Amino acid sequence: MATLMNPKWNGQFSCFDLVAKTDGNTGGRSRTVIQVRDIEIGGNDFVVMAGPCAVESEDQLLRTAEAVAEAGACMLRGGAYKPRSSPYAFQGLGVEGLKLLRKARETTGLAIVTEVMSEEDVELIAEYADVMQVGTRSMENYALLEKLGTCGRPVLLKRGMTATLEELLRSAQVIAMAGNPQIILCERGIRTFETATRNTLDIAAVPVLKTVSHLPVIVDPSHAAGIRCLVPALARAAAVVGADGLLVEVHPHPEEALSDGNQSLTFGEFREMMDDLQPYLAIQQAARQFRPRLVAVGGTD
Ligand code: PEP
Ligand code: MN
CB neighbours of 178 closer than 8 A, spacing ≥ 6? Predict the structure, then answer.
């Protein structure tokens, strides 16, 4: 779904030349497609990354990995290092968690996405992860971003909860300038005056980012919603506006989860969400094909 370049955006984003499209390269520069094992992010596939907020145990992780793979996810997302809002909350299993993620990849074939919080952990985590996640609280951690420039893995860069799109692209530019052009942008909701949801999903961020940047854009409906009943609706919205994929939290027993249980889907809910998404992905395709017919009917232009 093409959105026209707004002249204001061009001025606003063109300075981030490694990650932005500008008037000069809108037509010529093709989109970045990121290859992770046999998966293409930013190409024709709608890539779903799913799993528990935190890796808690072997049983929890392996069961979740099998369930999400069966439902159509192609990447397993789980945190071994957790940036928590409270210092008293579960902080993650660390290296033990990374080893469990590796085991889950061996048993299911799913690629692994996991968060890195400190530049000191980059090399270790890169040994286990296929994609390095930068969380909302770390979007402006420039020491981390620069280190990720040389990590040899694609980076999933989440939007800071109070960051503008310009600031998100600035952080992407930092990673790219440090040597790593393999960046996936992630809209995960921003902080607004609304309190009914955990964050406000900025759905317009998807077409804006896809217009001003050539990078893949995915949506995390779980952290945007904060409550599981809203996750499927936000996932559908993401599919319709042209996101390249989703990041969704899933847990075998959300009510017992050590983090983000309220927004985690059960296996059954995840399966249902995936089945229901199909027609919405087709809407996005149909819209792409419809455009030339409209031009023909009008007879001008
Ligand atoms: C997460 O992905 O579990 C997470 C902590 O997300 P965010 O950084 O968007 O809050
Ligand atoms: Mn979480």
Answer: 145, 146, 147, 148, 149, 150
Distance (angstroms) between ligand 2 centre and the Cα of 251 equals 11
142-170, pLDDT tens digit by residue?
A: 999 999 999 999 999 999 999 999 999 99
* pLDDT bracket for residue 299 (50, 70, 90): very low
Tokens of 114: 């996991």
The three-class DSSP label of residue 132 is strand
The structure tokens 């023909």 sit at 296
The DSSP H or E segment spanning 276 is helix 267-298
Tell me which residues have their CB closer than 6 angstroms to ligand 1. Answer: 53, 79, 83, 135-137, 158, 188, 223
Q: How far is the CA of 5 from the centre of ligand 1 (A)?
A: 30
pLDDT at 1: 56
The confidence score (pLDDT) of residue 85 equals 82
> Which atom belonging to ligand 1 lies closest to the Cα atom of 188?
9
Find the radius of gyration of the CA atoms of the chain: 19
Show the CA angle centred on residue 80, arms to residues 75 and 84, nearest 5°: 115
Residue with CA nearest ligand 1 atom 3: 53
Q: Which residues, in sequence order, are bridge partners of residue 249?
A: 51
Q: Is residue 219 helix, strand or coil? A: strand
More confident residue, 194 or 9: 194
Q: How confident is the model at residue 96 (pLDDT cuts 50, 70, 90)?
A: very high
Residues 6+ apart with CB under 8 A from 147: 119, 122, 178
pLDDT tens figures, 36-47: 999 999 998 999
Ligand approaching nearest to the C-alpha of 139: 1
Distance 26 CA to ligand 2 centre (A): 35
Q: Ligand nearest 260 Cα, by number?
A: 2
